[in-house]
Amino acid sequence: MINYKSQTVNVVFSFLIGLTFIVSAVLKLISVDLFELYIYSLQLFSFTISTIIARLIISFEFILGFLYLLSVYKKFARKTIIVTLVLFTFFLIFEFIKGSNENCNCFGEFIKLNPLQSILKNLILLAFVLMSGKSPHFKFKHEIPVFIGILILGLFTPSIISPPDFIYNAIYTSNSEIEIYTGPRLAHFVKNARLDKGKYVVCFFSLKCKYCKLAAHKISAIANRLNCKENIRYIFYGNKNDLEKFWKDSKSNMMKYQFLEPNIFFRISGGRVPVFFLINSGKLQEIYGYRTISEKNVSKFLTNQNITK
What we know:
The chain has 309 residues and is α/β, with parallel strands linked by helices. Helices cover 59% and strands 11% of the residues. The protein has two domains: 7-162, no CATH class; 169-302, Glutaredoxin.
């Protein structure tokens, strides 16, 4: 029989719990684009808020993992982990009842778990926490500096490695390139595609491009939230046989779309994918990339407001 009060068992379970939280944070950060889209797809927050929440969750898991692994303020960390696992489990139960079978992004895109599998994972972790004991397996002479170091590292690392889109937009967004795209070629495309009346977000995607699939997921979530699917157009290049896989991989709505020959596609898109044209009555008004397209700008464009960056 295992003696759950032994120091060895305490160390082993503390190591497993701490490492699980750290690995979860790292894997979420590696695929943070998908994690923030998962949060946004819940339709509870704007995309900007979703990007912040995604990084805060990563920071939170990173900090908790190291606190428990290194036995820094272990009693506090233990109580926080128990509360966190219980809250996450209630959320997963709600998702399961709704019939969701999607990857919950507990470990990013690298270890895919549906809500039921994640509930079982949380119950196992809770059992480990209860068996690991309250007492620290070792103690730092000066806990406060270690705690502050973990806190700073955990809070800032996700945003330094992968800055949220609104920070990226503030630094890089510029529409000085609009003049490059305007001309007879674009006017001809707009007329043929029947985009000369009304407002449209025109999305240029390659069927096999990873970031095109992420962008389609993002724009689809924006369209769902703003109820503007009729204003979205997908322009593809690639093998039409890959279209079904694109819909599946991107988790996108099946928007109205058309295919262009590669030479025409790249002449119009400027050789870039993904790229988004905001077209108003046949005229190109704004251009955005994957990072710079946002719910705020799409909303302002469609509601006749001036777009401010």
